[in-house]
């Protein structure tokens, strides 16, 4: 089992940047495929990005391609989401998730563990 804690959310103006972190407990971080999702009020949880166990395969939602980057640092048991050129439509609660599967997926049901979320608000 793994516990996930997100941090780094906040309020930023449109066009600005934020960096989110997801710290994982335990010594098995490298065995999990990791993902970022977000949920705006009144909307379903939406895929943002995912990275596989090795860190060599990364996928992004079309809505964030070219603006967001994702990485993981195994020595720190931490995953990162760098968000640039933020837009008002990026406003949501951002969640990190971990999957025991070896491949990445954009489906929330693919993921076994979830963090509590961190709020990102982009003002226009």
Secondary structure layout:
Layout: E1 4-7, E2 10-13, E3 18-24, E4 33-39, E5 46-51, E6 58-60, E7 68-73, E8 78-83, E9 92-99, E10 113-114, E11 118-123
Parallel strand pairs: 2-11
Antiparallel strand pairs: 1-3, 3-8, 4-5, 4-9, 5-6, 7-8, 9-10, 9-11
Please, how many helices? 0
Helix residue percentage: under 10%
Topology pattern, helix = H, strand = E? EEEEEEEEEEE
Task: Let me know the number of strands.
Answer: 11
Largest sheet: 7 strands, mixed
Helix-strand category: mainly beta
Approximately what portion of the residues adopt beta-strand conformation? over 45%
Oligomer: single chain
Overall mean pLDDT:
96
What integer value in Å does the Rg equal? 13 Å
Sequence stretches where pLDDT stays below 50 over 5 or more residues: none
In short:
With 124 residues, this protein is mostly beta strands.
């Amino acid at each position: 089992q793994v516990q996930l804690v997100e941090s780094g959310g906040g309020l930023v103006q449109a066009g600005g940047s934020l960096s989110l972190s997801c710290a994982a407990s335990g010594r098995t971080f490298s065995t999990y495929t990791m993902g970022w999702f977000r949920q705006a009020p009144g909307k379903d949880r939406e895929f943002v990005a995912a990275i596989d166990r090795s860190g060599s395969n990364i996928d992004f939602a079309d809505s964030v391609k070219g603006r967001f980057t994702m990485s993981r640092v195994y020595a720190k048991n931490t995953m990162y989401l760098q968000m640039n050129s933020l837009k008002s439509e990026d406003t949501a609660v951002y969640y990190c998730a971990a999957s025991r599967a070896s491949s990445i997926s954009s489906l929330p049901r693919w993921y076994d563990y979830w963090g509590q979320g961190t709020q990102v608000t982009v003002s226009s």
